[in-house]
Amino acid sequence: MVEQSSEEILEGADQYDVAFLVVGDPYGATTHTDLVIRAREKNIEVKAIHNASIINAVGVTGLQLYKFGQVVSLVFYEEGGWTSMENRPTSWYDKIKENRKLGLHTLCLLDIKVKEQSIENLARNRKIYEPPRYMTVSQAAKILLETEEYKKEDAYGPNTLAIGVARVGADSQKIAVGTLEKLVDVDMGPPLHSLIIIGEEKGQQLHELELEYLKHYFV
């Protein structure tokens, strides 16, 4: 929505207050930063009210935040027409590989499809939108394993420890710890979901305090 409607969002904002509400922190996405730049170009004053973000809320897993590396995003492939492994965008794979070499955990942000149009409706300029879709931990784990099977660079494997989180901060939040292979079969319930791949350092995947904290959530 932000990419397609930035001008609409800013229209009239130099004359009256316009609020833009987002999930997480307003500066947690580059598209939101771009919106601020566009506002400044129009001499529109911007005030940000910061909010909790999954980037720091993952501390609920007991993992030490300073041991996280680059954050990556996983997307639904079928909507982009990437049906074959050769055509799939996998820049995130190298980032996970780099993180794990440094013993750092990787937070994977999972795709959200809201107010998306089909290619046909987009081409015909019809304001008909597809039902919302939210990537699950199970789907993400499957994408990760399919990509490793294709690349075979040992960035991770079926037995790599990972953590699935859902609805963090809500009363119904859920945390599940297991290998990627096991998380493929885990049902985390309603959205929003995220996945964390554990870093490995000197053969150890977790600090003893992290491991002690996570024992409660193993599947």
Give the topology.
Layout lengths: L1 H9 L19 H12 L12 H4 L14 E3 L16 H11 L4 E5 L1 E2 L5 H5 L9 E2 L2 H15 L9 E6 L7 E6 H4 L9 E5 L10 H7 L5
Q: Quick check: average pLDDT?
A: 87
| Helix-residue proportion | 25-40%
**Strand and helix order:** HHHEHEEHEHEEHEH
CATH class of the largest domain: Alpha Beta
* Estimated share of beta-strand residues: 5-15%
Q: What characterizes the major β-sheet?
A: 5 strands, mixed
Rounded to the nearest angstrom, the distance between the terminal CA atoms is 37 Å
What general outline do the C-alpha atoms trace?
Answer: globular
- The number of helical runs is 8
Number of strands: 7
| Structural Rg | 19 Å
- By secondary-structure content and strand pairing, the structural class works out as alpha+beta
CATH third-level topology of the largest domain: Methyltransferase, Cobalt-precorrin-4 Transmethylase, Domain 2
- Extract low-pLDDT stretches: none
How would you portray this structure in words?
By secondary structure, this protein is α+β, with helices and mostly antiparallel strands. It folds into 2 domains: 2-42, no CATH class; 54-215, Tetrapyrrole methylase, C-terminal domain (Methyltransferase, Cobalt-precorrin-4 Transmethylase, Domain 2, 2-Layer Sandwich). It has 8 helices and 7 strands, in the order H-H-H-E-H-E-E-H-E-H-E-E-H-E-H. The protein has helices spanning 2-10, 30-41, 54-57, 91-101, 119-123, 137-151, 180-183, 208-214; strands spanning 72-74, 106-110, 112-113, 133-134, 161-166, 174-179, 193-197. A 5-stranded mixed beta sheet has the order 1-2-7-5-6. Strand 5 (161-166) and strand 6 (174-179) form a beta hairpin. GO terms for molecular function: diphthine methyl ester synthase activity. It holds the Pfam family TP_methylase. Its EC number is 2.1.1.314. Keywords: Methyltransferase, S-adenosyl-L-methionine, Transferase.
